[in-house]
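User: structure tokens for this one?
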Amino acid sequence: KAPGWFDRCGVVRMSLLYLNKAHYPVTTLGPGRRIGLWLQGCALACPGCVSRDTWGFEPDRALPLPVLLAWCREMASAGLDGVTLSGGEPFEQPAALLALLEALCDWREAAGLNFDILCYSGLPWRRLQREFAAILARLDAIIPEPFQARHPTRLLWRGSANQPLIPLSPLGRERYAPYPDREAERRPFQVAVDGERVWAIGIPGAGDMDRLEQRCAERGLRLGGVSWRA
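Assistant:
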């Protein structure tokens, strides 16, 4: 697990976060224009997961937290409505996750910003409440529970019907009030290109990734090492 700690003033002394990728703007995982951070490492291995490339802890994915925060500040200059944390399983790095959240909250307050922080977790809500209260206290909303491919849903930003959207703060209750039971007419989906990598950002429905691969093949683009079959 990545080490991390804060001094009493909330200044980052040292922290490493295992990170799969970061992207801005993300418009498919929460309201508005958001920073998306996908943490590396997940032991849950939910059947049907489309992000299997995030499962293993890989040493070369370790990133100093100050470097990540500097990137976030740079991205925010173009406008920022929220930060979405996904993975991987963020709560498998509890010390580093707490350090990141403390830093984001301190930055938000010091800069007078109003972005919210939404986190995905495959852990049960009751376990999160029991074991990670300090982390939950620094989130504005969370979408917990393991992905269940056999229970598809049209609920916005959710992968399966068992996953609730739970506001955790006054800002979260204000911003997410319209969304817990809202269904999506079409699943929002982004495609980003970074060098030789193509990222699909959002919550795909059944068969969406196969259709994406087929459409790419029709245009002469072959996808290798895809995350949903990694």
